[in-house]
Every structure is written in C-alpha cells, then in structure tokens.
Amino acid sequence: MDFRPFNPNRPFDIKKWPGYYGWVILVVGTLGMISAVPGSPPGMSVFVDDMIGALDLERSRFALAYTLGTIAAGVCAPVAGRFIDRWGARVMGCLSYLGLGLILLFTGYIGQIYSMFPSAETSSVPYAFILIFISFAGIRLMGVSFSMTTCRSMVFRWFEGKRGWAAAINGTMLSLSFSTAPLLLNGFVISLGWQRTWITLGCIFIFGMTTMAYVFFRDSPEACGVEVEQSTSKRKDSKIRVPIVKEFTAPEALRTSTFWYFVAGLALNGLIGTGISFHIIGLGDSLGMTRESAVGVFLPSSIFHIGTTILVGSYAERLKMKHVLSFMVIAQLLSLAGAYQLDDVFWRWCFIVGSGCAWGSFGVLVNVPWARFYGRKNLGAINGWVTGVMIVTSALGPYLFGLCYELTDAFSIAIIACSALCPIVFVFSLLSDNPQAVIYYNKKASPKGP
To answer: Could you say which of 184, 338, 343, 450 has the lowest number of CB atoms within 10 Å?
Structure first.
C-alpha cells in the first residue's frame, strides 16, 4: 500500500545521510522498544496500589485483569506482524505510538471514567474490572504487540553482517531501561501523582514518539535504495553464515521444527523469569529471607545479564544459534536450582549467574535467528508470532507460580516442574538446525543435471 506522506525520501533522503543509516535505525528503534516499559511488570509496579485504591478493586482481580489483558495482546501479535510487512515499519510505528498515547490518556482518566458508572454495591456489572482490562490490553497491545514488534523487525532488517553487535547494543540498552524504569516512574508518580504521570506519558507518545517515528523510521535498506551492511569477514569456508537461499513466509516458517524449538526455549525463559521475579519477595519469605535479601539478587544478576548480552552478541556471527540456545537452557536450569535453595549463599549466586546469563542469551536469541533463518522480507509477520508466544507465556508465569503457592503453600512444585522441562528443550536445541543451511547444503550436495 502506497502512503505518499511516508515516502522514504521525506523529510530527507537517506542516500545523502553521512554514514550507514542503519545505526540511526538502531538508536531510534531501541528508543521505540522502550515504549513497552509502562506496561511491563517493573513499570506497572509503581502504579498498582494507587490504581487499586482508586478503582476499589481487589488485588487478585487487578492481577487477573493484567494477565488477561496481556494474553489478549499476545494473541493479536501475529496480526500486528502482518500489518508491519504490509504497511511498513514507519506507518505502523506512527500508528502504534499514537494508539499507545491515547490508551495511556485513557488510563490517566480511568478514575474519573469509573466514577461515571454505578457503584459496585448497586450494580452487578464489574465496571472497574472491565475498565482496567481495556487499559492493560491496550497498553500491552500497542506497547508490545505493535510497537515492540515494529521496532524489532525494522532494526534487524537493516543489519546483516553486524546483526549480532546490533542485538548486543539493543539488548544492553533495553536491560538498563527496564531495570531503571521503576525508579524513574516512581519519581514521576511522587511528583505528579499517578494520574498525571499516565497523562504525561500519553502526551510524550502522541507528540514525541509519533514524530520520531515519522521523521527517522524507515522500513528497510531496499525501500530506501541503499545496500544493507555486510560482514567484512574474509572467511570463505565458514559454515556459520550461509547465504539466504529462500525468503520464508510466516506460514512456511511456522512449519519448520526449528522455529518451534527456538520459540519453546524463549517461552520457557519468559515463563521462568517472570514467574520467579514477580514472586521473588514471597519466594524469599517462604525460605526465611528478608525482603532486602530477596530483592538484592537483581542488581548482580543484571551485571551478568548485560555482560552475557555483549559477549554473545559480539560473537554472534561466529556462533551457531543452536549452541546459544543450549547455553540459555543450561543457565535456566542453574537459576532454577538456585531459586530452590535461595536462602543459601552458594545457591543464591547460582540463581544470580544463571538468571543473568539466561536473560543475556535471550536478548540475542529473540533478535538474531529469525532473519538468519528465514530472510528479512517477511520478518514482521514472523516476529509477530514470536512476540505473541512470549507475551502469553510471560503473562502465565506469575499466575502459575502464584497458583502453585496458593495450592501447596510453597513454590517448590513450580520450580521442579520448570526444571523438568529444561532437558526437553535442551534436546530441542540440539536439533535446531538453520533452515537456510539445510536448503543450501542440500543443493550443493545434489548432482547437477546434464
């Protein structure tokens, strides 16, 4: 579809940009991915108590609304991916940030909107639950399913040889952003109040982020008439990098076992990571730890997270992604072993190292494999499916761990169940061959015709 105002040569010609424009795309795309922060568990944590009080809603129902809203957004993510491939990252970026800004404004006025409906004592309709579900579903839909998928697809269409470095830089900045989000947003809430903070964020996205997307976003190098950057490596015998011999559509990618093996690993990491981090205080309390000791694992873990992202990303072009997936699963298992005995100093460090290394590997695995395995042409639709599965499993993690605690008064069953899944996913990782390599070497091995 041709949107003339979104001509890639407006408001400036990319071909005249000094240097490779992909680095600009990396910067603005990473900034765009930070749009997921307000709706993430760390970002949402500073608003929870105030919103529960304003809406007179039970904490369990508030959490259920967040979970259902997140799942709804995850289900819609594949559709978002198809829109990105059809309309382009620039159009979808503008629409996503405009939509996110509007839903943030709605959230800022949700208390006043709720006051317009009959009270819970006089009506059987759960208006508060419905309103907060709409808010959460909208924030997660626009902030993750659309904005995050748009930016991720755009950024990694602009990189070929240095895709690993791009993933390392992107993952590091996102890690820092999500880890500092609660402090920054809490400062806004203290200064402005929770409602004005939502409204301020909404205005930033409507006017600031939408403008940034229009001015700087570009769909791909080919759309702008420039060549994608290539590796400067002179190694001709490398079996790690193979040429793209087939541009897979999303349905074709979904029919490959490698896609689901990688998604299984990413989904398991999301389920484990969000489940444990969401209940870290409760987990520590069940083992006799203080609140400060339990929360204290996050800072050293973030150091291993960032270090692993940089190390794996910098060597990504020389690594098979199946080996990185295997490493992530081993790190997951180490973190679970540590979580099971978190009160012991040795096992606490096992959790810190395992969790940090798993999330650091995750930052590369969520970005690098898809263009390498399936080509860049339909990256939006493929990323949409990846994002959708991860959103759903990340939403289920806190719920399943919490349900386990309610039923057994301990988290041990959930930890053991996740540990049992790790060897299965590890076997999957060993079978996760690059589909491009399979096609390429099969063609080379096949006898030529007369």
So the answer is: 450
